[in-house]
Amino acid sequence: METTEQPSQPSISAEWSLDPTTHSFSSDTSPTLTLSLTNHANRPITIYNEYLIPSQVLAEGHFVIFDHTTNKVVDQLKTRFCDFPPPSKIHVPLRDHMFHTLYPGRPVSFTAMFGRSSKSPPRPRLEEQQRQARGVDGLEIGHEYSLRPGEGWGYIRWWEYGEKDEVISPPSGKLDGREIAYKRTKTPHPGIRVNVEALAEIRFRCVEKLQYGVSISSSSR
Question: Is 58 left (phi over 0), alpha (psi -120 to 50) or beta?
Answer without folding.
Answer: alpha
